[in-house]
TrEMBL record, chain A:
Lineage: Bacteria, Bacillati, Actinomycetota, Actinomycetes, Micrococcales
Keyword Lyase: no
Transmembrane stretches, start-end: 39-57, 94-112, 186-207, 462-480
InterPro entries cross-referenced by the UniProt entry: Cyt_c_bgen_Ccs1/CcsB/ResB, ResB-like_domain
Species, as recorded: Knoellia aerolata DSM 18566
Ranges where the ResB-like domain occurs: 37-517
Recorded topology in the membrane: Multi-pass membrane protein
GO cellular component: membrane
GO BP, sorted A to Z: cytochrome complex assembly
Coiled coil: none
The protein's name: Cytochrome C biogenesis protein
UniProtKB/TrEMBL annotation, chain B:
Membrane topology: Multi-pass membrane protein
InterPro entries reported for this sequence: Cyt_c_assembly, Cyt_c_biogenesis_CcsA, Cyt_c_biogenesis_CcsA/CcmC
UniProt keyword Transmembrane, yes or no: yes
Keywords: Cytochrome c-type biogenesis, Membrane, Transmembrane, Transmembrane helix
Source domain of life: Bacteria
Organism, scientific name: Knoellia aerolata DSM 18566
Pfam family membership, one: Cytochrom_C_asm
GO biological process terms held by the UniProt record: cytochrome complex assembly
Any single GO CC term annotated in Swiss-Prot or TrEMBL for this entry: plasma membrane
Record-given protein name: Cytochrome C biogenesis protein
Subcellular location: Membrane
Length: 529, 327
């Protein structure tokens, strides 16, 4: 008795017969526990709970900036939660443990069931019980004809109602239908494994890369050209297709008609017009990329995921030589496209010093007591609000963002009077002369840029096919009823007539069983007249 | 392009629907109240029969029970007192009228902005109310559901009240990421399944109440017996669940169209998944040996709580790519 692990285990008696469970016995016991319905249920509920924190806390892989922000605001909780994987829930070991256990449980549960079902489909319905009136649903009628003749018609009636029939003797019929229910259920569960495999496949062999392309510039699909690239572990980035696309125009529309809260200024339409070349030297194709209309490039798909403004800026030194001339993307921070960016003039500045500008681009700018800000997302009154720094732009050669300055080894420039910090306000066409003979900065004009994400996921078709199989399997499993019907015939007291008793056995409670029996009897009567 | 006249008519139709549904709710309440005295008249014999049945072994015996099961709600229409029958009839007519007005409101709203009217919280709310009523009425064609009326119409009115006040958003065009045929497919099916889950949830709660307080306690005695309620609730859930599965798949297809990847662990996606898993657990629990129907039903209730959270808290407060609530 003491050997049994669980007092409530129905297999307790086996434990007594086998005093030493041994490693194998223990493993078998663990396996049986893992593949039980109870465990599956527990793991399902656990999965639901474990998925929760990922929707509450910012996730590093989705929004790194918000994650850093959150950690900064919660100095004690931040590091603790971080070490527990709360900012990377869906890649955390505990989340993986749950779904992998569920997967193992699923396989361990479904494979034996498939075997049993396979056998059941190839064997005959079982012998009829002795007393049909014991079954939850039963009925009996008396019809004309000898028992033998009636039995033949009973079989035909059952078959016409899509039952599979078998007679174990001369006065009963056993019938069963609804095998597709279990088939559907098994396909549903197996297809879930397919979904997981398809996702894993996509993660290993897929890649995604993001790039910002200002109007007029060309992007060539090579690994080095992406702003960020995350290839799966098995991806060879040298194999990327050699296509190129030039952004020729970008249209953006915002709501101006409706004044209501949450609507005015909302984005309405974004369209990127590109000149697409499949490979160097190929014909140029005119294409559009929309928010819900990606461009298939062959091995990947190009999505329009973002957009914003890129002022054309020129910086000249005191001698009038151009030290910087670039279309410089500024990244939108909010729905009004208040955008941040930086200008890094790495070339000749004052001796040993480099020049950097950082600040805001405002598409519809106002400057009031709240400071510089944008009041509408479209470029109606564009302006740049910048501050300037001198010093070393790339201290220690550390990697840094293109959109902000690392000011660790820089000092901020003072205004001309030397009374405060230098603040530069530029509208298109304007030039600002920097104090102390540092040269000039000019806002030449404004372009839009498109944020394009190119992605490849070779597993997606398999995932989709699996999920559709799961859906169909589920429908079969939920709509079809597994029913067993038994019929017994016996000679009636009055000559030439036969008593037909019928009983039905169903899985779960089956409201329609009574009707099913009625239907069979009706079909029988039709045949007897 | 927004046609303000049409948008105003849409709102007018919505207010009228709320008024009509309020009277419908009162009618359904009158129906239940009208049944009570009748039950009292027959209470003694009915109880006696019941006790006998239980004494005879407690097992579920055979199929000669009334359509509602063992003698709880009235077995035939002639058992329903005239007063209740009148109230029920008026309530049903008003429920149909109110639902048609909701439909009109949604159609006018869609026409006013020339798009499918499922683009923000307000519109989701109205559509959910509409589909919940539609589920109730269509189901009511197949069986007598007058006992359920008040429990469906009252929450629908609360939902409409919320939509009209804190979620109200003016009619306007959609953001680019919502302009897709998948909006129509995914969100419509989602809203239909929410309607089904909602009615299933209400029936589940009635089952749990009856199971907890007893078959014949107070108002509960005019409802169908608890076994029937449990089965009805399950029946609704197994229609809703495949629809929700489809919603999940369609959402993933759309996510690839709009965001480039079919699964992004966006909070809204996470919650759709959580809801799916919880209802899958409900179906499992129902066939797991050693789990009682009551415990399984509690999981279904938890599933609907997740739907409510997904609709309200996740839409309004969680930061993600699904920030379309219009708030
Ligand atoms: C990924 C995890 C799983 C999910 C999402 C899932 C989902 C479902 C759903 C939705 C049903 C309802 C369909 C129906 O009633 O026919 C179901 C039924 C069933 N599942 Fe699972 N399941 C999972 C894992 C498992 C595991 C591990 C087992 C084995 C222990 C299992 C055994 C069963 C059985 C036996 C049924 C049939 C119930 C019946 O007789 O109707 N499932 N499952």
């Amino acid at each position: 008795m003491s050997l049994s692990t669980q007092p409530s285990d129905p297999r307790r008696d086996e434990g007594i017969a086998q005093p030493t469970l041994g490693t194998l016995g223990l493993l078998r016991f663990a396996w049986r526990q893992l593949t039980s319905m109870r465990t599956a249920l527990f793991l399902l509920l656990l999965l639901a709970v474990a998925a929760l924190p990922g929707s509450i806390f910012p996730q590093r892989s989705i929004d790194a900036v918000r994650t850093v922000d959150w950690m900064a605001r919660h100095e004690t909780a931040g590091p603790i939660l971080d070490s527990l994987g709360f900012f990377e829930v869906y890649a955390s070991p505990w989340f993986a443990a749950i779904y992998l256990l569920l997967l193992v449980s699923l396989v361990g549960c479904v494979l034996p069931r498939s075997k049993i079902h396979w056998k059941a489909m190839r064997s005959q319905p079982p012998r009829a019980p002795k007393r049909l009136e014991r079954l939850a649903a039963h009925n009996s009628v008396t019809v004309d004809g000898s028992p033998d003749a009636v039995l033949g018609d009973v079989r035909a009636a059952l078959r016409s109602s899509r039952f599979r029939t078998h007679s174990h003797d001369n006065f009963t019929v056993s019938a069963e239908k609804g095998y597709l229910k279990e088939t559907g259920n098994l396909f549903f569960h197996l297809a879930l494994i397919g979904v997981i495999l398809g996702m894993a496949w996509g993660n290993l062999l897929g890649w995604k890369g993001d790039v910002i392309i200002p109007v007029g510039q060309t992007f060539a699909n090579t690994a080095a050209r992406f702003d960020t690239l995350s290839p799966g572990p098995l991806v060879d980035t040298a194999d990327f297709e050699p296509f190129a696309m030039k952004l020729t125009r970008f249209d953006a529309e915002f709501e101006t008609d409706v004044q209501g809260q949450g609507q005015f200024g909302s984005p309405r339409d974004f369209t990127a017009y590109v000149d697409f070349t499949k490979e160097p030297g190929a014909k140029v194709e005119k294409k559009v990329i929309r928010v819900n209309g990606p461009l298939e490039t062959g091995g990947g798909t190009a999505f329009l995921l973002g957009n914003g403004y890129a002022p054309r800026l020129t910086v000249k030194n005191a001698e009038g030589e151009v030290t910087y001339s670039e279309v410089t993307p500024f990244l939108a921070q909010d729905n009004l496209y208040t955008s941040v960016g930086a200008v890094k003039v790495a070339g000749a500045g004052a001796v040993g010093k480099q020049l950097g500008f950082a600040g805001l681009f405002l598409p519809t700018a106002v400057l009031d007591e709240q400071g510089p800000r944008s009041i509408f997302p479209d470029a109606l009154e564009p302006a740049l609000a910048l501050t300037a720094f001198e010093g070393t732009l790339f201290p220690g050669g550390r990697p840094q963002s293109v959109y902000s300055l690392d000011t660790a080894e820089m000092t901020q420039l003072k205004n001309k009077a030397g009374t405060g910090l230098l603040r530069i306000w530029l509208t298109p066409g304007q030039t600002y002369t920097l104090p102390g003979g540092q040269g000039t900065i000019t806002f030449d004009g404004l372009e839009r840029f498109a944020g394009i994400s190119i992605r490849s996921d070779p597993g997606k078709e398999f995932t989709l096919a699996s999920s559709l199989v799961a859906l169909v399997g589920l429908l079969l499993s939920l709509t079809i009823r597994r029913r067993r019907v038994f019929v017994r015939v016996a000679p009636a007291p009055d000559e030439g007539r036969t008593v037909v008793s019928i009983g039905g056995l169903a899985k779960d409670d089956d409201e329609g069983m009574g009707e099913q029996l009625e239907d069979v009897l009706t079909r029988l009567k039709e045949r007897r007249t | 392009m927004t046609n303000e006249t049409l948008a105003n008519y849409a709102n007018l139709s919505l207010y009228s629907a709320m008024a009509v549904l309020t009277f419908s709710m009162l009618g359904y309440a009158g129906y239940l109240a009208g049944l009570l005295p009748a039950r009292d008249d027959r209470a003694e014999p009915a109880d006696a029969v019941d006790r006998e049945l239980v004494a005879a072994g407690g097992g579920t015996v055979s199929g000669d029970a009334s359509p509602h099961g063992a003698g709880a709600a009235p077995a035939t229409e002639s058992d329903v007192p005239l007063r209740a029958r009148k109230a029920g009839g008026i309530a049903e007519t008003l429920a149909i009228l109110g639902t048609l007005m909701l439909l009109t409101s949604a159609v006018l709203r869609g026409a006013s902005v020339e798009r499918w009217p499922l683009g923000n919280m307000f519109e989701f709310g109205v559509a959910s109310a509409l589909f919940t009523m539609a589920v109730f009425l269509v189901w009511g064609l197949r069986r007598d559901l007058r006992w359920l009326g008040v429990f469906v119409v009252a929450p629908v009115l609360i939902l409409l009240g919320l939509a009209n006040t804190i979620w109200y958003t003016e009619a306007a065009e959609l953001m680019p990421s919502l302009k897709s045929i998948w909006l129509v497919i995914h969100v419509t099916v989602a809203t239909i399944s929410v309607g089904l889950f909602a009615v299933g949830f209400v029936v589940a709660l009635l089952y749990l109440a009856k199971d907890h307080f007893g078959e014949r306690r107070g108002l509960l005695r005019v409802l169908p017996d608890s076994r029937t309620l449990e089965r009805l609730s399950y029946g609704l859930h197994i229609v809703a669940f495949p629809l929700w599965t489809f919603t999940l798949i369609a959402g993933a297809i759309w996510a690839r169209q709009a965001w480039g990847s079919y699964w992004n662990w966006d909070p809204k996606e996470v919650w759709t998944f959580i809801i799916w898993v919880v209802y899958a657990a409900y179906m499992h629990a129902r066939v797991t040996r050693g789990w009682r129907r009551q415990s399984a039903t509690w999981i279904a209730v938890a599933g609907f709580v997740c739907i409510i959270v997904n609709y309200s808290i996740v839409n309004m407060y969680f930061v993600g790519m699904h920030s379309y609530s219009g708030l």
